[in-house]
Amino acid sequence: MRKKTATVWLMAGVTILSLSACNPQGKQDSSTHEQQDNQQEQQSSQDANKNKQTESQDQNDQSSESNEGQTVDKADQHQSNDNGMVTVAHPNDLQVLVNKSHKLPDGFVPKNLQYADVRFPYDEKVQKRKVRKVTSDALKQLFQAADNKGIQLFAQSGYRSYERQETVFASNVDRYGEKKASQVSAHPGTSEHQSGLAMDITSRAVDFKLIQAFGDTEAGRWVAKHAHEFGFIVRYPKGKQDITGYEYEPWHLRYVGKDAATKIYKKDWALEEYKRNE
Ligand SMILES: [Zn+2]
Prior knowledge:
The chain is α+β, with helices and mostly antiparallel strands.
């Protein structure tokens, strides 16, 4: 009996490991995801008034943006709940660890969300264009530096709200039941996109898709080599799936600040290893 249970858990674990960090419903056909994304973005534009209120509050906070996140709390692991899931204690920290076992607080909205001031392959002013101000500023510099080398980067998907993750998860529970839903979609709060510190980037060469082939393009290679100079890391590196819980995602950039990013780049670490060793 025990052996059977263990096998089921092992299988569930393997399935979860193959989820993509960037698509709300895990790894499936990417065009399907984009369609789902767009449908949901239209819904989320109805929340525009709510967002505007948040933004005006954020503007009051902007002076603190330059100071925040400077202190690294080594122990984000404070409030442990059941299933071994940890709720991070300092969700606005620039080096906050968010993964399958570390979630952001329920309903958490990051500081200073704004539309990222960079190039996108679409015109709609949707939620996923947003990131924190600190991320937007750094992205702008990264994109400018790439432009100077004749490389056109495009941003694709940034902020994803807790509510949106909840909606996707809930619809999967309706469709498949709780157990299967946990396998095919991420638990609300575990997407790094909720932090406002992540942005998926892409290029024309891969038809603006979020695919591993991006890593082999001129843009992908340049980003892998230079992102740290602007405070970004490639969050899910090749060969680190056992540590990060996600397959190689050359498109998913995470802002951690220049010092941390440079250290992570030079040591060839994943963020999990940085947090453990730093
Ligand atoms: Zn992503």
